[in-house]
Design goal:
The protein is an alpha/beta fold and 182 residues long. It is built from eight helices and nine strands. The longest helix is centred in the N-terminal third of the chain and has 13 residues. The chain is elongated and about 60 Å long.
């Protein structure tokens, strides 16, 4: 049995895919997300870095993704699913989609960023390597915390029983924060 620790909506989708492969699985979300009510001014910004799906969810919840200015910005996106959601919001200028933030930094190292003003949309958990790299490159950015991640205090009784009985053979973890929480 595979333990899926992703957030509920994404976990359900993954659970269905795994079930189609005739693999048993159990869903136990280890994180909860709380989206901040935040109004962002996109007028002076030229580019946006988005590294998480929850930032996109927060933009939608706050109706921040409707403006023409927002849709006209250049987006540097970490994650294929994040880019798919941005396209659904009619964001046309997705400059590049990166597998991880290291790829993003390698790309930005080759660009002239002097005239750019970035928003870096993130959660409360800081990606220190990305922040250090943006600072090293002298990227003119403003970090906007769009949501808060909170780890569960304890696993459910069902999950604990499955683990005690050695039913769980693999655990899918999706971030270093999730791994530390587990």
């Amino acid at each position: 049995m595979i333990l899926i620790t992703r957030h509920k909506v994404e976990a359900r989708k993954l659970s269905l895919k795994i079930s189609k492969l005739k693999k048993t699985n159990h869903v136990e979300s280890l994180l909860n997300f709380y989206h901040y009510k935040k109004k962002l001014n996109f007028e002076k910004v030229t580019d946006v870095i988005i590294t998480s799906m929850q930032s996109v969810v927060a933009l939608k919840k706050n109706n921040q993704a409707r403006s023409k200015k927002f849709k006209s910005l250049n987006f540097y996106v970490v994650g294929k699913n994040v880019s798919i959601e941005l396209k659904k919001l009619e964001c046309k200028k997705i400059k590049k989609v990166f597998f991880n933030s290291e790829e993003l930094i390698k790309y930005l190292e080759k660009k002239n960023l002097n005239e750019k003003l970035f928003y870096y949309l993130s959660g409360n958990i800081i990606n220190n390597d990305l922040i250090k790299s943006l600072n090293r490159l002298k990227v003119n950015y403003s970090r906007k915390v769009m949501y808060r991640s909170k780890a569960r205090v304890q696993l459910s009784k069902k999950t604990i029983d499955l683990m005690k009985n050695k039913k769980i053979k693999a655990v899918l973890l999706y971030s270093s924060f999730t791994a530390l929480s587990f």
